[in-house]
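Appendix C reproduces, verbatim, an entry submitted by the partner laboratory led by Prof. M.T., so that reviewers can inspect both the input and the predicted structure.
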Amino acid sequence: MDAVNDGDVYRPIAKPFTIEDLMALVTQAFDRYKLAHDNTELRAKLRLREEELKRIAEEGERKAKEEADRVQIRREENKSWRQASEGMIDLCLEILQRIDPDLFRHSRRVATVATAIARELQTSADTLSKVEIAAQLHDIGLLGASLDLRRAQRDPGRIADLQVREHLLEHATTAAQLLAFLPARDIVEAIRQHHEYVNGSGYPDGLAGDRLSHLAQILSVADCYEEWGGEGDRDILARMQAEAGILFSPEVLHALDRAITNGIPLVRERQVLPHELNPGMKFTSSIYTAAGMLLVKQGQVLTLPIIQRILQYAESNTLTQHLYVEA
């Protein structure tokens, strides 16, 4: 019995038995041991498969973690780049305001009109931000240019001096080159195209129709409206609407019409001379000395001491910019 039990015998057979009983018993034994052998192999395969799945899962987790780390690094890099870009944009605006306050005022007003148009077109918050940046910086290529030159932007052909005309025709390209550091290429593209017209008669590339970016079409309308003196002025709008589909996008002009109806929040301002300053007036732009030092900050409400400081400076120095106060 010990031999039978220790030998893992399938089962004993008692006498008397027939050959048929023996054959059936042996067949059952073969089937049993084969099943046991197959189960052992299957369990071994399952263990290998489990180990393989575990390895695959661990590899997947490792790759997922690596990808998450890369995404986080990219986010941090993008955040740093955005912060750096915002700082460089602020620096450009500061330079523009210090060197050419009148051009800065124009750009700021164009930004107000352009964002009002973009809102009427129901653009995304991201596009709205890009419109504002493009409008604020669109004329940086004209930094230091004369007022007459800036007024000739819409009709450069009337400038007799070929060198001056060439400078004017290249100012959009120059601005785009100066702002090449911006990560948003569509902002740079819009600035380059802000003097292009729907019919292809603009500059610098003579682009037309669908080749013009949507941002550029908004910027072109806002820029022209402000250049022509627009401030809720329907006569100027009518002049521009006469050029719908020729110079300007009809869709953008319709949006400008709605924006004027709803009220574009342009700051009403007037130019004054130093001796016309009175307490309570508010400057609409910062005032700098000829050396670039801040004399009065934008939005400053004038008091007698501030007025006296300005007058004292003006007595011994030439003010290099016009004084604008809220009307």
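The radius of gyration is 39 Å. Additional entries are available on request from the coordinating office.
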